[in-house]
Design a protein that fits this description.
Phosphorylase Kinase, domain 1; Transferase(Phosphotransferase), domain 1; 3 domains; 6-stranded antiparallel β-sheet; two-stranded antiparallel ribbon; 14% strand; globular
């Protein structure tokens, strides 16, 4: 199954979950990279739901583009935009993020969620692994358990109890633990929990010991209900507590005040003098690595004469000419002079390592010393 629709080739597996496998692939005609998501045969309809949601959300910043979808060997397949790393990957590397990075993430995600909600869609499973970074933009991915919460007349779905748990236990809103139908406020509550994790590196209900997932889900739900916004956001700027309080105060079908949340966090950033340049914590390291690679490639491609100029030392040819000019005037003590002279036999077009460059420079210094010695010798001879 290396080829999909005679157009896409599987390159390597990127990740696997309970619903399917994601591969890096290539669009063969255009030679461009893509992501290919293949659904497991025993997990039908999740990919169909994702395709439906992504189609509704097309052209929204922070939502990946669909290139093709269909079936292959009896499995549902989705070909979409290939993104960089997920934020969970960066979190494992950095343990936690700076306030500036978290505020920029919050700014982008609240705007994306507002646009998603305006299209009558709930994500219902936000988590660091479903948030991805690509070219200064945060993306929301994996709409496999998303849901339409309004019909074509904009009528909101009714509130219901006794619903099965939806989402990921660590980040799920309290409503999910209570078995309530989820709404817009619950996506935002989950987002605040993620932001707290990004800042602190840990959530208060992590590391709960339990016999099984169901018991763990119950224990975490009880702790979320018990903890106040102040306790959850302890040691963080007050704005995070205010945001969580606002979200928890909302009724089931009430539209969240997205502008209030955006401005709340932006004012916090302004107070700290942050510039929203979308240079996240990991960008600095990635740019340094990228620049280093560019410099290495440039060094490999540079002619040696250019390297000599950058080091402000003469080329090999100049060394030869200088030495030849000095030797041609030798009158006395040839043994002393011949012992001092060193000829570096290299091709001026050859690429040299730093050691080779240092070797050439040291030999040039010897030639300079030889030249000065010879000048002094001429002066002595002239006086005689």
């Amino acid at each position: 199954m290396n080829y999909i629709n005679n157009q896409y080739q599987l390159i390597k597996k990127l990740s696997a979950g309970s619903y399917g496998i994601v591969y890096e692939g290539e669009n063969i005609p255009t030679k461009t990279s893509v992501a290919i998501k293949i659904e497991k045969k025993d997990k039908p309809q999740t990919l169909e739901r994702e395709v439906s949601s992504l189609s509704r959300l097309s052209k929204i910043a922070g939502i990946p583009q669909i290139y093709w979808n269909g079936t292959h060997n009896g499995q549902n397949v989705l070909v979409m935009q290939l993104l960089s790393k997920d934020l969970g990957c960066y979190l494992k590397e950095y343990r936690k993020f700076t306030l500036k990075t978290v505020l920029m993430i919050a700014d982008q995600l609240i705007q994306i969620l507002r646009n998603v909600h305006q299209k009558s869609i709930l994500h219902r499973d936000l988590k660091p692994e479903n948030l991805m970074y690509h070219q200064r933009q945060i993306y929301i991915v994996d709409f496999g358990i998303s849901k339409i919460y309004r019909d074509s007349t904009q009528k909101h779905i009714p509130f219901r109890e006794g619903r099965p748990f939806v989402g990921t236990t660590r980040y799920a809103p309290i409503a999910a633990h209570k078995g309530h139908e989820l709404s817009r406020k619950d996506d935002l509550e989950t987002l605040i929990y993620i932001l707290v994790l990004f800042l602190k590196g840990v959530l208060p209900w992590q590391h709960q010991l339990s016999q099984n997932n169901k018991e763990r889900q119950k224990l975490i739900g009880e702790k979320k209900i018990k903890l106040s916004s102040t306790e959850i956001c302890q040691d963080l700027p007050i704005e995070f507590q205010k945001a969580l309080d606002h979200i928890k105060s909302l009724g089931f079908s009430v539209e969240p005040d997205y502008d209030y949340l955006i401005n709340l966090f932006r004012k916090l950033g302004q107070r700290h003098g942050f510039e929203y340049d979308n240079l996240f914590d990991w960008c600095k390291e990635e740019e340094v690595i990228a620049q280093a690679k560019i410099m290495q490639q440039s060094e490999k491609m540079q002619p040696f004469s250019v390297k000599c100029q950058s080091l402000q030392i003469p080329s090999t040819l100049e060394c030869f000419e200088k030495k030849q000019s000095s030797i041609s005037n030798i009158l006395q003590n040839p043994m002393q002079i011949s012992q001092s002279a060193v000829i570096v036999e290299i091709n001026s077009d050859t690429n040299l390592s730093d050691d080779s460059t240092n070797y050439l420079y040291n030999n040039y210094q010897q030639l300079e010393n030889f030249s000065n010695l010879y000048k002094n010798h001429l002066l002595i001879m002239k006086d005689k």
